[in-house]
């Protein structure tokens, strides 16, 4: 009987420990998602010129878009397609959202590193005819495990299931793309927060997606806006120093000119004295003769 009671208590303790760990993991995941949504909102407002970047400098969209234009054009096209692809996933149920996100990550990485965008059809604005994107996706259970994403191929050609792959030849505004992408990602994180009470594999998938967002998007966005901030600050400091030193430089120039004039006058006086002296000597000699 004692053995039975001990076993029961031990089992009950394991369940409580497991529940405690699950609650801690759930709380940590919610903190990560909330922090990421705040970061997305901050990035969006920074690119709209509403807040100071790092509480130091407020940038305008024109300033942000005026540096490293060639790379910004390429990123704008890639992130424009990524935003379209992620936006399509918002209509999906929480049960299949993570699977689609994992698949989209794989396809986007392949598209950006190995594919040539010009080989795809030209992007055009047109509405989708069907009402839902869930019809072609498999139906999963209430708390499914997230299967490993992999690229689908027909022969040697990769078939994109989640990525909207087009050749974009329309003009894009980098700040507008960032603003829209941040809004769409914030909505995705909200859905992930509602789904966070999922299986352990679901937690891992959410963490993987968050890491992917930080490395593929946040790092590049922060690097660019920090570089622009530095250049703008350098220009402001140069202007300030120029305005502050201008009076001193003017006074220094005037002093140098004054000293130069005095030096020239002294040289002339000295030369005149020498000339008078020579003339006096000549007069004395002539009188002697």
Structural class, from secondary structure content? Answer: mainly alpha
The main sheet comes to: 2 strands, antiparallel
Q: Which ranges are low-confidence, i.e. pLDDT below 50, for 5 or more consecutive residues?
A: 1-18, 125-144
- What does the radius of gyration come to? 36 Å
In spatial order, strands of the major sheet run 1-2
Q: Report the portion of residues in β strands.
A: under 5%
Distance between the termini: 153 Å
Give the SSE order as H and E letters: HHHHEEHH
Helical fraction: over 70%
Shape: elongated
Overall mean pLDDT stands at 80
Number of helices: 6
Total beta strand runs: 2
Describe the overall structure:
The model is unreliable at 1-18 and 125-144 (pLDDT under 50). It contains six helices and two strands, in the order H-H-H-H-E-E-H-H. The chain has 289 residues and is mainly α. 70% of the residues lie in helices and 2% in strands. The chain has a two-stranded antiparallel sheet. Helix 1 (2-47) runs antiparallel to helix 5 and helix 1 (2-47) runs parallel beside helix 6.
